[in-house]
Write a structure and sequence with these properties.
It contains 3 helices and 4 strands; from the N terminus they run H-E-H-H-E-E-E. The protein has about 90 residues and is α+β, with helices and mostly antiparallel strands. Strand 2 and strand 3 form a beta hairpin.
Amino acid sequence: GKTTVARRVAEALDGAKVAFLDMDAYYRDHHALSHDELRLLNWDHPDAFDLDLLAVHLGQLAAGEAIDKPVYDFVRHRRAPSAQRIEPADVIV
């Protein structure tokens, strides 16, 4: 639902360069937890997200700098070793 809405907003911004930051990319990396412990986490709670990193990334994009957005591996409940390069844009969704 949220991604679909974000994409439709971007489509409505005719000609604007849009950068997408999906919140799923900013789940905290719980590499120290077992699979059973991971299942007990509340993934909808604000503490599930690395909001500090998101704020840094938003600041960098606003300053015209590219970022390396985390890629979250939902199978392993960990950040992937790779990242996705996001270039600065007119609009950040």
